[in-house]
Amino acid sequence: QTYAPKLILLDITDISCIRDVAKEILNCYGCVDVLINNASMKVKGAVQSISLELDKKIMDANYFGPITLTKAILPNMISRRTGQIVLINSIQGKIGIPFRAAYAASKHAAVGFFDCLRAEMEEFDISVSTVNPTFICSYHRQPAPGNWEASIWK
């Protein structure tokens, strides 16, 4: 069956709305065959210069966002005993580099979660993949003086 595309906006850092978005998708289409978690946020800076608030925002975008969306879609896949889940992650989920601690930590956490999920979903014939590309070109916001968000990449 062919479905008309539907645009649904989602701020992956807003954990409270992810379940509602997943519910909207499932209500519209009935199921999700392939879930690709591709949203990401990164920051560059020394550990002591990055606020805990920004650390948490990076963790929400790169770890809690994808796992919350995956957990919201997963029961439907399990009940149908089919599906594919993909995490587009980063090589920094395997190897940390200086000035990327928050980003690397969030990507390490995501790899750990999806590695465990892969083992758990085998019995339900659900495929779980993690893609860890090397450095990619991303959109970068130009810094405003004194703005901590200046070094955020989306």
From TrEMBL:
Pfam families assigned to the protein according to its UniProt record, in alphabetical order: adh_short
Keywords of the record: NAD, NADP, Oxidoreductase, Signal
GO process terms (BP): intracellular calcium ion homeostasis
Stored InterPro entries: NAD(P)-bd_dom_sf (IPR036291), Sc_DH/Rdtase_CS (IPR020904), SDR_fam (IPR002347), SDR_family_member_7C (IPR052148)
Any one GO molecular-function label of the UniProt entry: oxidoreductase activity, acting on the CH-OH group of donors, NAD or NADP as acceptor
Family, as annotated: Belongs to the short-chain dehydrogenases/reductases (SDR) family.
Protein's UniProt name: Dehydrogenase/reductase SDR family member 7C
Lineage: Eukaryota, Metazoa, Chordata, Craniata, Vertebrata
